[in-house]
């Protein structure tokens, strides 16, 4: 098949899509989210797990990296009409416009508020990318990476496919860009008193799915290599305000590594300490996860064009620190 566009099969709903150079290296789940506009992530994972999606005739995992020429079978799925979701609320559009911290010809960066998903799905009509596309109709905006819904801070969106490919290669430590790095820095409040200095956590992480499709991550030798570095900046109210640098970008990495060392991120309903969370909610009004993506440093064009992007700590987190 020479045509890289989707080809309808005689059965009517099934499509066979050939991967072109623009999509090479993309994960299968992200590829499907692009092909099935409006589909929730839970549906995408379901059709992959059930074997309805095939790559070159065989079953594949959601994290499979696609290559040029791969044939992807996409089954028919029932999605609402494009107009069903309407438009993002005015307040969300205004918040997203106000969150932009950097923009040039190929990248746009925002300081994402906590509570907004990276993209729609699983009962969420509008995430970051849908809202930005509504703000910038006609612009080819694509997410470079994701943040957990409850995490605030720096998110980068590509305006050009070339920038998307290069940044995603950096994010996944692609051998083709060996020697180039992307430095990711977070700010977090961890429960209890962390020791001074830098504590490095080298512990593999495995993503499991609970009933209903909810992801749950744990330290497990069968998981992927994961490395985080925690450094105490100051102590507040018996807890540790830390800078966290991560060398890998696994799902829930900081949250699970923090739990693993006995100092979970405060405000974490999934991996945290319920008693600490309740006490901080009552005493200082902490109503969210205290985790913020503070900065990204990288270079494009083979290392020739450096970027240093920053997102100031979310105001509600500054207030919590002031009250501790």
Question: Features of this protein?
Answer:
disordered N terminus, 10-stranded mixed beta sheet, 23% helix, 16 strands, isomerase, Pseudouridine synthase, 324 residues
Describe this structure in words.
The chain is α+β, with helices and mostly antiparallel strands and 324 residues long. It is 23% helix and 27% strand. Helix 3 crosses helix 4. The longest helix is centred in the middle third of the chain and has 11 residues. It starts with 6 loop residues before the first strand and ends with a helix. 31% of the residues are buried.
Number of distinct beta strands: 16
Pick out the low-confidence regions.
Answer: 1-12
Number of DSSP helical runs: 8
| Superfamily (CATH H level) name of the largest domain | Pseudouridine synthase
Task: Report the end-to-end length measured between terminal Cα atoms.
Answer: 63 Å
Series of H and E elements: EEHHEEHEEHEEHEEEEEEHHEEH
Average residue-wise pLDDT = 87
What Rg, in angstroms, do the CA atoms define?
Answer: 20 Å
Which geometry do the CA atoms define?
A: globular
Fraction of residues in helices?
Answer: 10-25%
Largest beta sheet, briefly? Answer: 10 strands, mixed
CATH topology category name of the largest domain: Pseudouridine synthase
The domain tally reads 3
In CATH's first tier, which class of the largest domain applies? Answer: Alpha Beta
In the CATH hierarchy, the architecture of the largest domain is: 2-Layer Sandwich
Strand % is 25-35%
Structural class by helix and strand composition: alpha+beta
């Amino acid at each position: 098949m020479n045509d890289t566009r989707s080809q309808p099969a005689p059965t009517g709903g099934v499509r066979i899509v050939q991967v072109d150079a623009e999509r090479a290296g993309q994960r299968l789940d992200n590829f499907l989210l692009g092909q099935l506009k409006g589909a929730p992530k839970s549906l995408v994972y379901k059709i992959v797990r059930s074997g309805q999606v095939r790559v070159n005739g065989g079953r594949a995992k959601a994290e499979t990296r696609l290559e040029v020429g791969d044939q992807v079978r996409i089954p028919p799925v029932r999605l609402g009409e494009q107009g069903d979701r309407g438009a993002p609320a005015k307040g969300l559009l205004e918040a997203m416009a106000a969150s932009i911290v950097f923009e040039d010809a190929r990248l746009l960066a925002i300081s994402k508020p906590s509570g907004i998903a990276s993209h729609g799905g699983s009962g969420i009509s509008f995430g970051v990318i849908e809202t930005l596309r509504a703000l910038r109709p006609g612009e080819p905006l694509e997410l470079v990476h994701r943040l957990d819904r409850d995490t605030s801070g720096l998110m980068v969106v590509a305006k050009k496919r070339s920038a998307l490919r290069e940044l995603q290669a950096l994010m996944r430590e692609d051998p083709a860009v060996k020697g180039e790095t992307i430095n990711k820095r977070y700010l977090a409040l961890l429960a209890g008193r962390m020791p001074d200095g830098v504590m490095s956590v080298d512990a593999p992480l495995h993503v499991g799915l609970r009933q209903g499709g909810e992801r749950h991550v744990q330290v497990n030798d069968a998981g992927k290599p994961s490395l985080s570095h925690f450094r105490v900046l100051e102590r507040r109210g018996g807890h540790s305000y830390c800078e966290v640098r991560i060398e890998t970008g696994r799902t829930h990495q900081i949250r699970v590594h923090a739990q693993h060392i006995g100092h979970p991120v405060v405000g974490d309903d999934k991996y945290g300490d319920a008693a600490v969370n309740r006490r901080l909610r009552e005493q200082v009004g902490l109503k969210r996860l205290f985790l913020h993506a503070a900065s990204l440093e990288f270079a494009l064009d083979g290392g020739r064009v450096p970027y240093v992007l920053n997102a100031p700590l979310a105001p509600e987190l500054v207030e919590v620190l002031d009250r501790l």
